[in-house]
Amino acid sequence: MKKILITAFFAVSMSLFAQEYGTKTINLPSSEKYDFTTIVDIEASEVKSQGKTGTCWSFATSSFIESEIFKNTGKHIDISEMYTVRHTYPKKAWNYVMRQGKTQFSEGGLAHDVIQSVQRYGLVPQSAYTGLLNGAIKHDQSKIVPELKKVLDIYIKNDKDSTIPNWKVAVDSILDASLGKIKNNFFYEGVMYTPKSFLALTKIKATDYTTLTSFTHQPYNTPFILNIPDNFSNGLFYNVELNSLVEVMNYALKKGYSIALDCDVSEKTFSGKYGIAVSPNNVLDNEKSLTYIVEEKDITENYRQSEYENYNTTDDHLMHVVGMLKDQKGTIYYKVKNSWGGDSKRIGNGGFIYMSESYFRLKTISILLNKDGIPENLKEKLNIS
Q1: Which label site among 58, 117, 312, 367 has the fewest CB atoms less than 10 Å from its CB?
Q2: CATH (domain of 140)
């Protein structure tokens, strides 16, 4: 009762103070749970799990290609992620050997590695190459890199007493034993294909795709090789202003083009459990932001650059952006398809992440998309045809 009287007295006193001194009573906004409205929703395949692998780059970009195939042909085709992985490991091994072991050798890769593989080796459906052997239903590739690296390190050290054969032969042998041998011919819907003839069926052209990024240490509107650990293939990135990167995202999605996204997911406010990725202005709101709308940071180019240079923003994970949403306050979010499975009991939003524009601005490393998803004025600046 005493508490109620004190509260009432305080409220009346504040009201009288406002009347006498002409101040305004401030009504603090109450916390609101997220309530999303869909703006764009692009056709995409179901959420998969990459299992115990570091091959998010192949899962994300393969999903991206599947959406491109649907856009091209109206067909839903499940593309083999492991076909690209199997062809990419020998390239990584070559890079590691030629650099005499003075570079990273890991499971990681980037979206352009998939596109390069498509151009050289074609595509196959999941039914033609699963990468799963001996009745396995989940991917576990934890032993592949250690086994490959052991062989490569022996060769680099020039160990004359080693019984390891030619390293290229050894690499192929390990990959065949771990993922399975690749067949040059396979049936799909009753028709015999090769990887190249199957690629023709999908109407995918590797030259239709390009990668954009935004950093201040390189001139804008020019291509450069981004120095991140997983860029073992020295892929080119077109550097654009941060506002232009966001403009491309919104323009492409509204035109029906999905996007492969490489970003940092190490923040506590990136949550697969809640299906949310936001950038709270106040660190005290981190936990709250997973469920409730909070004020977010205003991300500048300089702040983004500093977070990249001090390693707070790193090349962690690739995903597939398939739509746009807004909350009840009008804030824009991107619908991002993840590859951590879609079990609704432990993963929010069915395996999709609703990523705020603020988080995207701060934590994106790069995006890969169809050139037709880039506004014409920017394509001219970049000299992209």
Answers
A1: 312
A2: 3.90.70.10
